[in-house]
Amino acid sequence: MTPKLRDIRPRRDVRCVTTLTAPARPVPERSTRDALADRPVHTRRRTRRGNPPEGGEPGRVGRLLSRADGPARPPAERLLPPGGRRRPQSRVHGCRRGGAGRVRRRPPAVPRRPTARQGPCRIAGWPTTHGSAGSGQTPAEASDPVVRRFVDAGFVLLGKTTTSEFGSLPFTESDALGISRNPWDPDRTPGGSSSGAGAAVAAGMAPIAHAEDGGGSIRIPASCNGLVGLKPTRGLVTNAVVEVEGLGTGGVLTRSVADTAAVLDVLARHDPAAWWSPPTPRASFAAAMQTDLPTGLRIGVLTDSPIDGIRVHPACVEAVDVTLRTLESAGQHIVDTPLPLPPTDELVTAFTTLWNVGGAGITLADPDRVEPHNRALRKAARAIDSWAYAEGLRKTQQLSRRIVEGFLAGFDLLVTPAMACLPPLVGAWRTGIEDDPLRALLNSYPMGVFTSVFNVTGQPAISLPVHHDEATGLPVGIQIVAAPWREDLLLQVSRTLERALPWAGRRPTVS
What we know:
This protein is an alpha/beta fold. It has helices at residues 32-36, 145-152, 195-202, 219-225, 257-267, 285-290, 314-329, 344-355, 372-382, 386-410, 439-448, 453-457, 487-500; strands at 42-44, 91-93, 113-118, 155-161, 173-174, 178-179, 209-213, 228-231, 249-254, 298-301, 333-334, 413-417, 461-468, 475-482. The strands form 4 sheets. The chain has an 8-stranded mixed β-sheet with strand order 7-9-8-13-14-12-10-11, with helices on both faces. The chain has a two-stranded parallel ribbon with strand order 1-2. α7 links the parallel β10 and β11 (333-334). The relative contact order is 0.14.
């Protein structure tokens, strides 16, 4: 029997412009700190006499709080006093959509720039539940390195956003967190697994939100919510551990290419304690983005699903066509060289061998409360011995090399749909899960079929909201993929498209 979930449909009232978590049933009494964990932040917008009108230049990080000249926050470990008794505020006041400031490259202190954090990251003094009702509520003793980079750069942590349990699905609809909904159409999903991050930025609750991407969890919410979402090259942005054998990496969701570049300058630092980490890039990504895009680039195209049997929605193909016409008019060459993808069975087997262990290392207080599809994944992972797992990892690396070598020989950039579908209706992933819990993953394939390939290869890839579906009014993203370590080129082409196909003026119904 399908469990009844809390409905957290966005709603409006006089005081609170956007509320993405409004429990419809009583919840146990909890501290403010606990209530913030794994729940979207409530943002109230207030006006002051003399403020400029809302709007301005959207997507700029800065001048976003009513008083932005206060001192920067201390490092993340000192966010709470000894014992962790101080409580983060459950409401953040004075957040506006406009503002002309911009994050500079690795500033010593950026005064009070707000950001939301994706649920799985550890923040000192806050619990980390990984979106699971089976997790405990013990506060973390220390913050993850990626969190410390944000705080050391002057960002203010507003709270944790919702995520699907263990990040395994591109939907967040669970007994633990309720239903995350899309600000463009609350009957549809905002994507995932960074569901709350995408909804928060699209609705104007925060100018940026941290997200992690192990199969598309940055790029899928970017497409669903009309945002910019960059997955960096494997290893460029490090954290406490290498996630899912290098499939996963961290990044942000923003409304503009400039903000994405600026935050990447904060996150992409050499980490001598990491298992692997490149030197800090010599050139600023924000500066590289301003450089003119070279002409004569070889632009590859992939609009057929990498997995057999998945139909690509016409609006997703049209988004790619719009992008190609724009790039061709800018002096680029569209080539018809095919990307050397492996057969479907090989690709799916390689990915799922690693994906099944995504919940490893997470301490559970009550394993029986883990969602059925994740219990099935854990069971499948335990059925593979260490020898077979090592062979699967080796096979995945061989497939990755074959794809990347073909990419380098044929393209400078590759354009694909971000997803094979429009944002699905809430609950669409549930079809057939009563008989087979793993149907949840199969039902999600149209959302991640184009993104997950490049988690295997580790290449940088970005989702851009270049198109809208005329029939539904929903945003439609495209994905652009570059060679490893070519985030500079990816940002340059993204900036070119942002100028030619501006999206800053588009706002969802709930904002």
